[in-house]
User: What shape does this take?
Amino acid sequence: MSLTLRPYKSSDAAVITSWLKSEYLMRQWCADRYERYPVTPEDMNAYHKWYIDRQHSRALTMTDGDGVVGYITLRTPMDNPTEQRLGFVIVDDSKRGLGLGKSLVSMAIKYAFEELGATKVSLGVFDNNPSAIHCYEAAGFHRVSLPETENYECLGETWNCIEMELCKGAMNVS
Assistant: This one.
């Protein structure tokens, strides 16, 4: 399987939004960034038009030669131009367990370091998403302690975030 990472296209939205099989999974993916479930392709493209500027934020799609199999965003936090922050990480739910998540994250890390000149890549993940945490750890991320835990109100519960990061040179990105 030949995986490539390319800029997101509006035509990708129908495939990506089809992977969000429940509101719970959708909230794990985006927290409160979309107002309602289900997220439609139109919602996703409107979000992109508003928030993805291709300078401080980028949306990338992973393909396998047959079609779209993953999606991820990178953004530069306002206070640190040498950092890239991963977000909205998702892979085709029918192809889970094939290492696509680790491949997607590893490709995004490589892009952040080599193409964008980042020295650190960070992310936040909900503590109720063990498969995502395992994926990020397998890609080389480690947990970071913050003075205060970020949390979101989702589906009537408080979901806590785990902060993770990977610094350039901490691993061999392939």
